[in-house]
């Protein structure tokens, strides 16, 4: 989790490769800390739903329909992130990134959103200090990982470097409204 929350202290973002059958293949997440896996995003999404349900209960607005709305909002947000990342990678000529890797990268935002929602339960103003930090960290995390995906592709990065920089900046900026929208508990 420190990779996603304290991104400024991480030195390298390259994946570890190994030769398998004459080709280079990436090592699995158990052996490579930079490898994406779905465990953290799925657990963070589950935690997001539990904390949203608890917060709705504390506010006296808990109903199954309200929790279903939060669940649906989370899935829609995750789906929009995946579509955005995949679409922008495809438009830049780097559409070879595996879909499950993109799903994992897009789901890391739920961890920070869950912690910010938990902070909001105890002191509502704390949310407005913590959430921008997690948005910034998620944006930087996605920029670093997507830069690696772009550089690992067929070198389209060298043909349109400014376009790629704008894509990465747009991806980082989108995290702010997206995660604030996900963190909004409605009932």
TrEMBL record:
Top-rank lineage group of the source organism: Eukaryota
Signal peptide range in chain numbering: none
Keywords: Endoplasmic reticulum, Golgi apparatus, Membrane, Protein transport, Transmembrane, Transmembrane helix, Transport
GO terms for biological process, alphabetical: endoplasmic reticulum to Golgi vesicle-mediated transport; protein transport
Location in the cell: Endoplasmic reticulum membrane; Golgi apparatus membrane
Predominant location category: endoplasmic reticulum
UniProt membrane topology term: Multi-pass membrane protein
TM ranges: 38-59, 71-92, 125-143, 164-183
Pfam families (alphabetical): YIF1
Example of a GO cellular component annotation carried by this entry: endoplasmic reticulum-Golgi intermediate compartment
Family: Belongs to the YIF1 family.
This protein's name: Protein YIF1B-B
Organism from which the protein derives: Aegilops tauschii subsp. strangulata
